[in-house]
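Usage

Read records sequentially. Each one opens with the input sequence:
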Amino acid sequence: MFLDVGKFRYEAQKKANAQRKTQKTQDIKEIKMRPNIDDHDYDVKMRNVNRFLEDGDKVKVTLRFRGRELSHQQLGMNLLRRVQDDTAEIAKIEAYPRMEGRQMLMVLSPK
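and closes with the structure output:
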């Protein structure tokens, strides 16, 4: 008894294609905020952040500073800390908050 190599190769390829179809790639979703964001706007953004994390995607939180807001960076840090606390049970921090030009970035990934 011997194996038909062509048939074996074909079956293996079919199996690999099926696996590729079902696997979920991890995307990076971005949420943009401003340092003095309103409470309701913040809640809407956080709803999206939670949905992205539950879908298994990473979330990049970007804080844009405009004009004189740049001199109040502690406001930005407080906001990112608030995001961190609100997502603590479902996400871990992959990249801690850092300044990059006029924006502050933080990356969250699902636990």
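Summary fields computed downstream for this record:
- The mean pLDDT is 90.
- Helices lie at 5-22, 39-54, 73-86.
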